[in-house]
Specification:
Belongs to the MlaE permease family. It is built from 9 helices and no strands. It has about 260 residues and is an all-alpha fold. The protein has one domain. Helix 2 packs parallel to helix 6. It is globular, with a radius of gyration of 22 Å. The N and C termini lie far apart (about 45 Å). The relative contact order is 0.16.
């Protein structure tokens, strides 16, 4: 019995040490990526491809998620507020919920599932086929060539995707509320103006940028250090999506407490 308890404690300790080591290696990779962002050569074509992959590639799934999030939120809010004859609050409630929380979080989760996993798979395949080692032999820094463009693209594009998510979500809620649930359109829009301040949009963008950095950093790190052939790449991809998703939810809580306390 004592041996089992000791083994359990050792297992937890080893996991904690491995987590701290992995976190430290991620921070080192992030620091290197930032340094290399300001050092030539500047491969603008690679940066443009990364922007296209993160932004344009993720746009359909983000917009689709935004539409249905706005519809569901408006529908549920309407029937909840109708119990108190407060249907006029639907517009403001939907806008605040999307801009402050659901927009950045759901957009980040969609990008993590689509683009973050793609980053891990691509870099992991390059690692196990020794393409990354070949780049280093040819005096091409792998961090500058592979990691830096993806991190910068994610930081830049996540706020844009989040604002589009908020826009289509609020628009869908407006259509449902006004044309189906018969909420007064003027009241719907006036409550948005009352509930949402311009600073909320800025805070939402800051959240999204942080999520983008986490998605790209985790995705690139997991792929960059993948091993074990095809199976190892698959495990790294799964780990990347799970880690990114949990990190987004954790960071969202921290940011919410700091920004809207």
């Amino acid at each position: 019995m004592l041996n089992k308890a000791k083994s359990g404690v050792e297992n937890v300790g080893n996991r904690a040490i491995a987590f701290v080591e992995e976190l430290g290696q991620m921070m080192i990779m992030l620091g290197e990526a930032i340094v290399w962002a300001f050092r030539p050569p500047y491969r603008l074509r690679i940066w443009a491809q990364a922007l296209d992959m993160v932004g344009v590639g993720s746009l359909p799934i983000v917009l689709l998620t935004g539409v249905f999030s706005g519809l569901v939120l408006a529908y549920q809010s309407f029937y909840a507020f109708r119990m108190f004859n407060a249907e006029s609050l639907v517009g403001g409630t939907v806008a605040v919920s999307l801009i402050r929380e659901l927009g950045p979080v759901l957009a980040g989760l969609m990008v993590a599932g689509r683009t973050g996993s793609a980053m891990t798979t691509e870099l992991g395949t390059m690692r196990v086929t020794e393409q990354i080692d070949a780049m280093a032999v040819m005096a091409v820094n792998p961090i500058q060539y592979l990691v830096t463009p993806r991190i910068i693209a994610s930081v830049l594009m996540l706020p844009v995707l989040t604002m589009l998510f908020n826009l289509v979500g609020i628009s869908a809620a407006y259509v449902l509320s006004v044309f189906v649930l018969e909420v007064d359109p003027g009241i719907f829009l006036s409550k948005i103006r009352d509930f949402v301040a311009p600073i909320d949009l800025l805070k939402s963008g800051v959240k999204a940028a942080a999520f983008g950095m986490v998605i790209a950093l985790v995705g690139c790190y997991k792929g960059f250090y993948a091993s074990g052939g095809a199976k190892g790449v698959g495990e790294a991809t799964t780990s990347s999506v799970v880690t990114s998703s949990v990190s987004i939810l954790f960071i969202d809580y921290i940011f919410t407490v700091l920004m809207w306390d």
